[in-house]
Amino acid sequence: MARYSWPVAIVLALVIIAGATLLLFRTNPTTYSLVEQSETLHVDTDQLLVAPNGRRPQDLNSQPNDATFGTVLPYFAAPRR
Amino acid sequence: MLLIGLIFISLFTRPVFAMASATAPDTTTPSYLQDVFVFSSNEDSERLIVAFTAAELKSDTIYQFNFDTNRDGIEDRVIQATFSDTDPRHATITEPALPERTGETISPADARRLSGPVSMHASPEILMDRDIAIRAFAGLRDDPRGGPDFAGAQTYAVVVELVLPSILAEHKSDLDIWVSVYERSIN
Questions:
Q1: In this predicted structure, what is the pLDDT of residue A23?
Q2: How far is residue B34 CA from its own chain's centroid?
Q3: Does B152 lie at the interface with A, CB-CB under 8 angstroms?
Q4: Greatest CA span in chain B, whole angstroms?
Q5: Contacts with A, B 67-126, CB within 8 Å
Q6: What is the mean pLDDT of chain A?
Q7: Contact in structure between B163 and B133 (CB atoms under 8 Å)
Q8: pLDDT number for residue B59
Q9: Is pLDDT at B80 greater than 60 in this prediction?
């Protein structure tokens, strides 16, 4: 028993030192807090209208002006200069 | 041994916070989001396009598309968009990923991401990568809202095209989608 005690003690000491070091230098993960959330939109993907030819997206908050949607990604008209 | 146990428990545990999908807006903060849109691609019925418009794209902020596939009010997949404060500005948009955390406090998702310029010109700069199954756009556009109040107005649009199987199990077609905005917490 005695002849195994010192290696066990060394291993335990190393584990404790390693754990304490990790704890000491552990950086908190960057967190982000909620500031705004849209309404939830329930979507049936089988029923969705297509874009851009369909030109009427499901819109949560207001009725879009169809004429402003483009014909390719990003579906929105170019900015005005 | 108890000390070792405590050290390792503290290393690998994080607070878990779940919330319902409907959160009352905080009227004391300025509004970030204008509209949220969902399209089906006319090129490929397996592709979905989600978009939001916003008055500005802030740095130190995560704009997150949330996809709830089992209607429990908790996001099952997320797409996160962040924007640099450099000049010119850069957008970074993740592919659909499991959220690291859900609820009112989140962390950046561990996912592959597209990166590129925030488009400020008439010709849109589409962000894409052959190894990532999304296409994305972020930039200035004409405000799509109708009516005289918005005539000539401009807005920022963030548009992501994704493949449905990346968020939805086979033979399922319904899901809940919303967009949320998170600001970097001060630790």
A1: 79
A2: 14
A3: yes
A4: 71
A5: 68, 101, 103-108, 119-124, 126
A6: 66
A7: yes
A8: 94
A9: yes
Helix (H, G, I), strand (E, B) or coil at B67: strand
Give dist(CA B89, CA B57) in Å, integer: 10
Contact between B23 and B147 (Cβ < 8 Å): no
Output the CA angle B123-B127-B129, nearest 5 degrees: 140
Residue bearing tokens 């005289």: B148
Cross-chain Cβ contact A64/B185 below 8 Å: no
Say if residues B157 and A74 touch (Cβ distance below 8 Å). Answer: yes
Counting other chains too, the contacts that B131-134 makes at CB distance below 8 Å and 24 or more residues apart are B132/B95, B133/B95, B133/B162, B133/B163, B133/B166, B134/B79, B134/B93, B134/B95, B134/B96, B134/B160, B134/B161, B134/B162, B134/B163, B134/B166
Which of B34-48, B122-136, B141-155, B156-170 is most confident? B156-170
Interface test with A, best of B38, B150, B160 (most A CBs within 10 A): B38
**pTM of structure:** 0.73
Average pLDDT, chain B: 79
Q: What angle do CA A18, A19, A20 make, to 5 degrees?
A: 95
* CA neighbor of B80 nearest in space, from B59, B101, B66: B66
Q: Which of A16, A32, A49 to mutate to test the interface with B (most CBs of B within 10 A)?
A: A32
